[in-house]
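Q: For a teaching handout, I want to show students what a protein-ligand complex looks like in token form. Below are the inputs, and the small molecule is S-adenosylmethionine. Please produce the holo structure.
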Amino acid sequence: MRSLKLAVTTSRSQTSNLVCQARQIAWELKVPYIGRDGRSLEAIATAHKVEGIIVVSPQRVSCVTRAGEFFYHPSLARMRIKEINNGKTDQMIEAMSISPGNTVLDCTMGLGTDAVVASYVTGAGGRLVGLESSAVIAFLVGRGLATYPEPDRDIAAALRRVQVLQADHREYLRMLAPGSFDIVYFDPMFRLPRRKSPAINVMRTLADPDSLERETIHLALKVAVKRVVVKEGRDSSELRRLGFKNIYGGRYAPVVYGVMDGQGA
Ligand SMILES: C[S@@+](CC[C@H](N)C(=O)[O-])C[C@H]1O[C@@H](n2cnc3c(N)ncnc32)[C@H](O)[C@@H]1O
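A: Here is the structure, written as tokens, with S-adenosylmethionine included.
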């Protein structure tokens, strides 16, 4: 994947604490720290020829690109968890056939919405590992999951349980022992239509756009005890290309889930 040229700065109201945090993040992500000095983000981007700026403000840490601002928020996960608690079916959870205590490897973590919903359902006895190849997404979402001030105790616990690793799932799956996780899950960028929502458009500028390879599904099948699940657009031919025959999803839902049994199913 092509990485954007990034830098880190603070909000215009710059305190020594924010500067210290910004410098630390710049060091962690191995990108330059640039003092804000009252300038607009556009002025900094032009002067330093960067395409994305990580901004440390008193409210949050976000990444601003031409497409908009990317930052962690659990609102969609919260909505889905509420519906699960109201007895509604969550198609992803159905497709995964998750039980409390299961271990789940989310190979395409993104904003972590699916990971948090799965983490909530697996509960304190389960384990949720989220892989994300984009360094900036892994950093911002990892930090958000660890620190977001979620008022609901159980949802906050689900956020904190997600263990984020910056890794390419192809490399990570290759080094795992057979049967390392109950469920292996993929939700690749490939299918997402353009200009669906501002949040997706910003994420697109930071995310890894690759489609899945058949070899990756074979690797996942060795790692999964129960199931390998892939989310795709209803009209996409991707699931067929990847060899999925068993498809879950609501009759009118825009997305469906391809399911293959793991080695212990
Ligand atoms: C559509 S998003 C996932 C959204 C996520 N399911 C959620 O609920 O927020 C896909 C994510 O997978 C990441 N990705 C794509 N290829 C990857 C790879 N080979 N390894 C790890 N992450 C990858 C992208 O950078 C992007 O952030």
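A: Two things your students might notice: The chain has two domains: 6-66, 75-261. The CA atoms of residues 151 and 157 lie 10 Å apart.
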